[in-house]
Amino acid sequence: MRIRPRRRVAVRPLRRVLSVGVALVLVVPAYGCRTELTPPGAPTRWPAEQARQWQWQWQLSGPLDPAVEADVFLLDPVDTTAAQTAELRNRDRRLICQVHVGSVRSTDPDASRLPDAVRGGPARRPDSRWLDVRSWDALKPVLADRFRLCRGKGFGAVALADADGYASRTGFPLDFDDQLLFNRRLAELARSLSLSPGLVNDVPQLAALAPDFDFAVNEECVRLAQCAKLLPFADAGKPVFHVEYAASTDDFCVTTVGYGFASIRKDRDLDAWREACPLP
Hints:
The protein is of the alpha/beta class. 32% of the residues lie in helices and 19% in strands. The chain contains seven helices and twelve strands.
């Protein structure tokens, strides 16, 4: 009796296996190329190889526009809701909260926690006073809770504003070293609360503080002829988020993009409008 060959029965499953295998080979590299997102509750990561590729938005007034084409949003942690940060995180945005660490306003929710002894002369913001940054024991609990508010609302990074009072008339005999110690303590505090620390302005101390902070935020380094002083961050592969208010992007982008900064033009009230420099 002749036995029929059974080779054809095995061919179709084999072809199916090969097809699936090819599909997997094509799909796996595609996932491997994606940027790994920061999980909730973890400090924001700033991969050095992407330092020149960020687009950013700085909005502190007006209705939040989550559709802005930016990778990074710098926002007010009090005015921004957890629902808004959740929406932005769903859009794969990195979130930075801005905390005024060296000043207090009478309208701040935690103003009553700061004793009069640590309040000095008028600061930059309307109705604000400089703080005595030497009084770490009095300031730390309040600032820690401001950082926790950021963390609780879904921010992964914090930008320290008014961290340069030593260069102003604060009403206290603050010097360079007083501010340096305070800022380093704040960077350490932020990290202990799972926040990536960044520094707003404080240009004279950038070189000394570059090892302590993950990113810098700068206002008008082109107008003030200070951009070269931000290079300790850029050269270390750390993001420099830069803004100009008056100059045209046609005039300043060629300079700042050449330095490796993420640059935008904004109105001084920092509403949703922005004009971004092209990426290199």
